[in-house]
Design a protein that fits this description.
The chain is of the alpha/beta class. It has 14 helices and 12 strands. The chain binds guanosine-5'-diphosphate and magnesium ion. Residues 13-14, 68 line the site of magnesium ion.
């Protein structure tokens, strides 16, 4: 479920990547693509950690990739490094821009390149298909000939998306725009949202302030945020938005040994959700014992109290797991 970071040179990609993952991308000279994991901030998870005080704490994670490529071959490097990325984060430099028009034109410059890159692939493929028109087409050829000319207008099903996977198209992947604002000009992100319209998910952040924040010892971060008058760091919102952009949710397993958030696609049924922990959990699935997070807290934050209040449910194979549920799987192999 990797997310690739895209943007024009010097837009703040590596700065953002470093803040989110803690991996020092700019110090890794000679590495074209740097990968790192970002923890997804979740107040519910933090509360469960407070309650259970576990030995091990395992929040949900999202993998990000930062590409360090310059020069003529930069685009090829980006294309190759991010071919497997499921989603994209497009960082736009708004901290050196003089006007919203300039920000929009920077944003569109890269978007146009992405569209063009996809169109070239489409055209090559269609040309090849036209040449072999006299030969019998495979079902895949037929599918490509049908879908490729209409790529941008389509809302693709998962199956169709899968059938196009080998092309690594940019424009069919979910994308979140990160407007990297100046220290004095945070509201320019709202202007961007107004200009780009509701179909473009976007978040404003000032990477310079966030980098300063992360350079502080963790005890001092809270004071820094209080001084800014905000509850949490903005990069946390970026990670969360990226996480939901990919249609992921998390469920929790809790105990004194570990509190862990497990990541699954929204709409996953209980046995497949269990397989994320171990294949045996799916193979030998019997039931899922489930307590909703809100109900657990409302009952005072103990399993016994939730059980006594009748909040523990037993669900079977067809149950679709929901975000924030606390689950204990019963299985037998
Ligand atoms: N003033 C200011 N500078 C920034 C901000 N974000 C990044 N920079 C600076 O812009 C330069 C390019 O950043 P970098 O993350 O390396 O960009 P990349 O080429 O997209 O990876 C660095 O000198 C950063 O310190 C910001 O929000 N405000
Ligand atoms: Mg960089």
């Amino acid at each position: 479920m990797e997310i690739g970071i895209l943007g024009l040179p010097q837009s703040g990609k590596s700065t953002l990547f470093e803040i989110m993952t803690g991996v020092r991308s700019r110090e890794m000279h000679g590495e074209t693509c740097v990968r790192g994991l970002a923890s997804v901030p979740d107040a519910r998870f933090d509360r469960l950690v407070q309650i259970f005080k576990p030995v091990k704490v395992s929040p949900a994670k999202v993998p990000f990739s930062d590409v360090n490529a310059v020069g003529e071959k930069a685009w090829d490097a980006v294309r190759q490094s991010l071919s497997g990325a499921e989603g994209l984060l497009h960082v736009v430099d708004a901290f050196t821009a003089a006007s919203i028009a300039e920000i929009m034109s920077r944003y569109r410059k890269l978007e146009d390149e992405l569209i063009l890159a996809d169109l070239m692939i489409v055209e090559n493929r269609l040309e090849r298909l036209a040449k072999m028109a006299k030969k019998p087409m495979t079902p895949q050829d037929v599918f490509h000939a049908h879908v490729l000319p209409r790529l941008r207008e389509l809302s693709l099903s998962d199956e169709e998306r899968h059938g196009l996977r080998s092309f690594s198209f940019w424009t069919i992947r979910p994308e979140l725009v990160v407007v990297n604002t100046g220290e004095e000009n945070l509201s320019v992100a709202d202007d961007f949202v107004r200009e780009a319209g509701p179909s473009v998910p976007a978040i404003g952040i000032c990477c310079a302030i966030e980098a300063e924040l992360m350079a502080l010892p963790s005890e001092e971060r809270k004071e820094f945020l209080d001084a800014l008058g905000v509850q949490e760091a903005a990069f946390g919102r970026v990670i969360r938005a990226a996480f939901s952009l990919l249609g992921r949710i998390s469920y929790f397993t809790v105990g004194e040994d570990e509190v862990k958030a497990w990541v699954i696609p929204a709409g996953t049924k209980a046995p497949k959700a269990a397989a994320v922990i171990h294949n045996d959990f799916e193979r030998g699935f019997i039931k899922a014992e489930i307590i909703g997070y809100e109900e657990f807290i409302a009952c005072g934050g103990t399993n016994a109290a939730a059980k006594a209040a009748g909040k523990l449910r037993l669900e079977g194979k067809e149950y679709v797991v929901r975000d924030g549920e606390m689950i204990n799987f019963r299985f037998n192999v």
